[in-house]
Write a structure and sequence with these properties.
2 strands; elongated; 19 helices; mainly alpha
């Protein structure tokens, strides 16, 4: 019996310095069975083929020693079978599993199989978590298709146990809020409504902050002014206009500061001072709040979120009240261009001096 698989198993085992006993133990047979395979006297049972391929870290097509034409024919058969049973969940699951067992490097098969567990519920994903983990690791380690990588991370983020979750989230690329988006998907899928609502609102706030702080960087001050005014108006629409003491206070102060600077740049000094005074008023109000004050957003879209003014810890300048005041002071104390002239004007100096009592010690 001249079987290509016999030569492949023998070659791989010897190349990797694996004994027949090691291979036999890994796939659940006797070493005599392995010996017969290698001599071409017997053929491994079909259910053992995926185990042997997985043990050596290869696809079953490599194990069979088939050529590319045969491989493509086998792939076409699997794709055709899967397409034929799309409307039959159980048959679809079986077809995806058979395809992935034979071609673990054809990542679409693994992705579809995981969908069967997690999205379609054809099998309880909790009972197949090890298989989902293996497929996820395979795709993350070997697949270059970013769409596949992101989807499998969403799937494993839903299925994984809480104590193992960080291991997967840390594999994600560092684009903004990727981890948080995955957590939102996890909590929503699991019907954990309290965590889902909070995470969704945190993501919405992160998105708003990103848009606000990145849509006013223009060389043209007139365009920047229009955008900053729009941002302030959006915040005013979202919050309760009856109070300045809310979780928007620092962000609002920041944008009044930016607006003041743009007005100063185009020498609209009265408008600049009006915005500067609004900004300093807000910074001072924030600094004078008691430590650990809990601030709400007073906004239906952010109704479960709060912002906490952190307490000071000795001379720690990372205290929010001191740090925010220090950032504002530095922004207004620039000595380049128009600001160098403003430093000597009494109206400007008066506003700057209002921030001094709230700065970290020895910072001025």
């Amino acid at each position: 019996m001249n079987l290509p698989i016999s030569n492949v198993i023998r070659r791989l085992r010897r190349e990797r310095d694996i004994t027949q006993e090691d291979l036999a133990s890994a796939v659940g047979v006797t070493y005599q069975s392995v010996s017969r395979w290698e001599k071409g006297q017997a053929y491994p049972d079909m259910e053992l083929i995926p185990k042997i391929a997985q043990y050596f870290g290869i696809s079953t097509d490599v194990l069979f020693g088939t050529d590319s034409k045969s491989i493509n024919q086998r792939l076409d058969i699997h794709y055709q079978k899967i397409n034929e049973v799309l409307n039959d969940p159980e048959s679809f699951y079986q077809a995806c599993k058979a395809a992935y067992d034979e071609f673990p490097k054809e990542f679409s098969f693994g992705l579809w199989l995981c969908r069967c567990y997690v999205y379609h519920g054809i099998r309880p994903y909790e009972e197949h978590l090890d298989e989902i983990r293996n497929i996820s690791q395979n795709i993350m380690d070997n697949c270059t298709n970013e769409d596949y990588r992101i989807e499998i991370m969403e799937i494993i983020s839903i299925a994984e146990k809480e104590e193992q979750l960080d291991r997967w989230l840390n594999m994600m690329p560092c684009w903004k809020s990727c981890r948080e988006v995955l957590l939102e998907s996890r909590y929503g899928y699991r019907r954990d409504l309290e965590k889902y609502r909070k995470q969704r609102q945190e993501n919405f706030l992160s998105f708003l902050s990103y848009i606000f702080y990145n849509c006013n960087e223009f060389e043209n001050s007139e365009i920047a002014i229009a955008n900053i005014k729009m941002i302030i108006e959006v915040m005013d629409v979202m919050r309760d206009p009856q109070t300045d003491i809310d979780a928007w206070i620092v962000m609002r102060a920041d944008f009044h500061t930016r607006l003041a600077m743009e007005y100063f740049i185009i020498k609209e000094f009265e408008l600049g001072y009006a915005q500067m005074e609004k900004a300093v008023d807000l910074y001072v109000k924030y600094a004078e709040l008691p430590n650990d004050t809990v601030l709400s957003y007073n906004c239906p879209a952010l109704n479960v979120l709060t912002e906490n003014k952190l307490a000071s810890h000795k001379d720690d300048t990372n205290d929010k009240g001191e740090f925010v005041s220090w950032c504002a002071y530095q922004a207004f104390s620039r000595t380049d261009g128009i600001f160098e002239r403003l430093q000597h004007e009494s109206r400007f100096k008066k506003q700057i001096e209002r921030l001094v009592p709230y700065l970290p010690k020895n910072s001025v």
